[in-house]
Amino acid sequence: MALTPKRVTAGLAALVAALIAFAAQAGTLEMVKQRGALVCGVSEGLGGFSDRDAAGAWSGFDVDFCRAVAAAVLGDPQKAQFVPLSTVERFDALRAGKVDVLSRNSTWTFEREAGQGILFAGVDYYDGQAFLVVRHPTITSALELGGVSVCLQDGTTTRANLADFFKANSMTYSEVIVAGPSEAIAKLESGGCDAYTTDQSALYIVRLGMKKPSEATILPDVISKEPLAPAVRADDVAWFDVVKWTLYALVNAEELGVGKSTLDEALQSQRPAVRRLLGVEGDLGQNLGLTKDWALRAVRAVGNYGDMFEANLGARSRYAIPRGLNQLWQDGGILYAPPLQ
Amino acid sequence: MRRDKATIERGGGARRLALRCGLLLVMLGAAPVRGAPPDAVTMDVGDEPGRVSTEEVRIEDGPFARQLVFFRSNEAPGTLVISTADRFLYLVLGNNRALRYGIGVGRDGFQWSGLVKISRKAEWPDWTPPPEMIARQPYLPRFMAGGPGNPMGARAMYLGSTVYRIHGTNQPETIGEAVSSGCFRLANGDVIDLFSRVDVGAKVIIRQAAQL
Predict the structure, then answer these.
(1) Do A249 and A287 contact (CB within 8 A), yes or no?
(2) Contact A289/B at CB under 8 A
(3) CA of A218: which chain B residue's CA is closest?
(4) Which residues of chain A are within 8 Å of residue B176 when distances are taken between CB atoms?
(5) Measured between alpha carbons, how far apart are the two ends of chain B, in Å?
(6) Does residue A332 belong to the interface with chain B, where contact is any CB pair within 8 Å?
(7) In principle, which of A119, A251, B116, B188 could form an S-S bond with B154, CB 3.0–4.6 Å?
(8) DSSP letter string over A165-176?
(9) CA of B65: which chain A residue's CA is closest?
(10) How many residue contacts between A and B have a Cβ separation below 8 Å?
């Protein structure tokens, strides 16, 4: 087909339109760099995930993930700024550009992503509805809960999940509706119910509030899928890559044995995968628009995934949540990151 | 945390720790050995023969308390998986769950990985520090009969033909630390519990953090 001047003009117009659209979409990384700060949406206060102390300093797992992104992009974890957002306003705030990334214990679901202008950048915490049990030390599985009384909060998906689970497993139970965690604790301790069900991460926090935490068992089973994931705007795939691969870099770092306490040793490593991760060899950062030591900076800031988990939620925190599903795939969990190569 | 022996033993280094299991150092060459990171958490506590930790001591709270956890594994129920980096011992129960115990593990140079079987079980095992250690640290007993003041603790499970054991301790505060010469120690109450659940012949998988 011959190119008429008219066709060329039309083609050029389309190209220019595409370029403008591209520029509009590809803005977040440049904007963050120009601003010199990363703005993160976090929860208004959830122990272990994002919490503000009396002096206004933020800490927690979701907070640390933001700091890792800030370190990867800007070279300084202190350049992450935090905006507390309610559950209602969180996604609108992200869509409106008030935050660059939402790191706010948000469950990744179809309804929140498909057609919603939002992309979830990979699961950073596998949560799910679980059971805390008292006075039944022999129960080791949720399948042994037949006949118990279960405390729960109404008006959530919790109740439907519970009914489904007991029905599917041909068990009976009695419901005791409570207004919140503190009433649940009171009921558990007074004998008002044998078990309490909500998301597993929250159960560990509830257990801390009990008079005798060691007498409560949190069963390892989860009966629903609550994959918590950081989210970004769907119109900026380059930024999506930055956030997603920062998360995967932290997970890969743990798998490779590269962590806060081994970083200096790791920089001397001869293993190609370690050298690639840390930018000693090659330049993986280039494809992200970052420097080649992006992942090194992220790990230096918060450690690897395991460091981040243990410090905020796990063995080195007051919550002492076992890694469980959030353990690496090779060590008994389901945490699995695509390779950095 | 008790550090009363620290002055005496400072500089004794890892060789001193070989004593902790009543082991001969020369035998360590036979096992796969890997160095721990230079700033790994270690403690400078000595053996405290004679110090009595009651049989009932269990870790009750916190991450090192015995607890049921999610643990995806293809290993048969009854298998032990030891994660030295995390200081946990898992007893595989099947159906994606395990009983998790907090442990103390080997310190620098005494961390190893491999697959072995429980070859023997003993209650209140004796302790016989090897002669070269006696020469270096004359205050140690030549032989110590099993009992509440014995550093071996209430129970021992011998790991294959290696010199290592899973055993109790009279120093329960060292659980979660890297202090031994390669043995895995549990609080006495916890090792008694584990002992009752594990049979001779059970498979034991020892895992390390990835080698850099």
Answers:
(1) no
(2) no
(3) B68
(4) 315
(5) 32
(6) yes
(7) B188
(8) HHHHTT---EEE
(9) A214
(10) 81
Put the strands of the sheet holding B114-123 in their side by side order.
Answer: B67-70, B97-102, B88-94, B80-83, B203-207, B114-123, B155-159, B165-167, B184-185
Q: How many CA atoms lie within 13 A of B170 on its CB side?
A: 20
Distance (Å) from the alpha carbon of A247 to chain B's nearest alpha carbon: 19
A68-111 per-position pLDDT tens digit: 999 999 999 999 999 999 999 999 999 999 999 999 999 999 99
Neighboring chain B residues of A211 at a CB cutoff of 8 Å: none
On whether the CB atoms of residues A269 and A275 are closer than 8 A, the answer is: yes
Q: Please name the residue of chain A whose CA is at the shortest distance from the CA of residue B62.
A: A320
Cα–Cα distance for residue pair B127/B150, rounded to 1 Å: 7
Contacts 24+ apart (CB under 8 A), A34-37: A36/A74, A36/A79, A37/A70, A37/A74, A37/A79, A37/A80, A37/A81
pLDDT at B182 over 90: no
Tell me the average pLDDT across A284-311. Answer: 97
ipTM of model: 0.84
Structure token pair of residue A165 = 């689970």
For testing contact with chain B, the best of A140, A217, A221, A262 (most B CBs within 10 A)? A262
Average pLDDT of every residue of chain A: 92
pLDDT tens string A118-168 = 999 999 999 999 999 999 988 989 999 999 999 999 867 899 999 999 999
User: Pick from B38, B72, B210: which is nearest to A333 by CB?
Assistant: B72
Residue B69, pLDDT above cutoff 90: yes
pLDDT tens, residue by residue, B76-132: 999 999 999 899 999 999 889 999 999 999 876 567 788 999 999 999 998 877 676
How confident is the model at residue B39, as a pLDDT? Answer: 34
Element (H, E) at A132: strand A129-134
- The CATH number of B6-207 is 2.40.440.10
**Helix boundaries (H) for A26-125:** 27-35, 61-74, 90-95, 110-113
- The sheet with strand A101-102 has its strands ordered as A80-84, A38-42, A101-102, A231-233, A118-120
Domains along chain A with CATH numbers: 25-126+227-329 (3.40.190.10), 129-224 (3.40.190.10)
